[in-house]
Amino acid sequence: MTVDFNDYFWGEKNNGFDVLYHNMKYGLVASKEMTDFFRERSNIEESNSKMMTKLANKAGSGCIHGTFAPVWAVLKGSAERLSSLHLQMVQKITELVKDITKYAEELHKKHKAVKEEEAGTLEAVQAMQASTHAVQKAKELYTSRMQEIEKLKKDNCSPKDLEKAETKLRKQHDDYRNLVEKHNPIKMEFERRMTSTCKRFQDIEEAHLKQMREFLTTYIELLQTNHDMVGQVHTEFKRQFVEMTVDKLLEQFVLNKYTGLEKPG
User: Which domain of life is it from (predicted)?
Assistant: First the structure.
C-alpha cells in the first residue's frame, strides 16, 4: 500500500495539521528514547565485561597444581576473550549513541524551522476552523428562522409578527450568504496550503523513518557480529576442552612433574 498523507488529513474538524505537526515532534522523542535504549544496552555490555573479567580472575586463581590445572587456563582465556568482546560492544554502541544524539540535535533544529515556515499554514487552518464554525452557526440560525416562520403561519399569527419574522429571516439569509462568500477563498487557501504541507510532513516522516531504520540496522549488524565472535570463542573453548582428554591431561602432568624414569636398582 502506497500512503499519501494528502488523502488522509482533512475532515470536518480540519485538525489534520495539528495531528501531523505533533507526529513530527514525536520523531524527536523517539530518537531520544532510542538513545536512552542504546545507552542502557551499553551499560549492560559494560557490566557483562566486568563480570567476565571477574570470572577470568576467578579461573586464574584456581589451583595451578594437579592434573586439572591446564583446564583452568583454558577457562580463564575464554572468559578474557568474552570480556574483551563485551568491551568492544560498549565502544561500538557508544559511537552509535553519538550518531543518534547528533541526529536528534539536527532534528530539533529542523523542527523549529518547520514550525516557523509553516506558520502561514497554521493561520490558514485557524481561519478555516473559525470560518467553518461561523458558517455552520449562521446556517443553523437561518434554519431556525425558517422554522419560526412556519410555526407562525400555522398558528395564524398577526401580519405584523409575520413581517417582523420575515425581516429577521432576510437579514439572516444575507448574513449567511456573506459568510459563505467569505468562506470560499478561505477554503481555497486552506486546501492549497494543506496540500503542500501534507507533502512536506510526509517527506519529513519518510526521511526520519529511513534514518531510524539505518540506526537499527547498524545495531542489528553489531549484535550479529558480536554473536558470531562469541560463538567463535565458545567453539574454540569446546575444541580446546575436547582435546584435553584424560590421557592428554595425565600426559601433561607427567611431562611437567615427572621425577625420574629409572626405578631404583
Answer: Eukaryota
